[in-house]
């Protein structure tokens, strides 16, 4: 999905279109470094009976940049949505 967003192939226009993306190898390193956080979030998601709001989601910390090692973090879908809506309000 990250690659589709960066390449502008998603269903909706996305703020990451045209921004960079890390290589598969770099992603694997990032994944391993952030596996504990993902597993905690995934456990919470399962315990919520797979409530979409609690699903793990990769977030770009600075939305003006692409998907790079130091610009990604795990948030829940709900947290990511709240952040996105907040940033949209700030940038109006």
Chart the SSEs and their pairings.
Blueprint: H1 2-7, H2 24-33, H3 35-47, E1 56-60, E2 72-76, H4 77-90
Antiparallel strand pairs: 1-2
Description of the structure:
- With 92 residues, the protein is mainly alpha-helical.
- It is built from 4 helices and 2 strands; from the N terminus they run αααββα.
- It has helices at residues 2-7, 24-33, 35-47, 77-90; strands spanning 56-60, 72-76.
- It has a two-stranded antiparallel sheet with strand order 1-2.
- It is globular and about 35 Å long.
The overall pLDDT, averaged over residues, is 89
- Spatial order of the strands in the main sheet? 1-2
* Cα shape: globular
Contiguous uncertain segments of 5+ residues? none
What is the H/E string? HHHEEH
Whole-number radius of gyration? 14 Å
Please give the count of helices.
4
Sheet/helix structural class: mainly alpha
C-alpha termini separation? 27 Å
Strand % is 5-15%
Record field, number of beta strands = 2
What level of helicity do the residues show?
A: 40-55%
Largest sheet: 2 strands, antiparallel
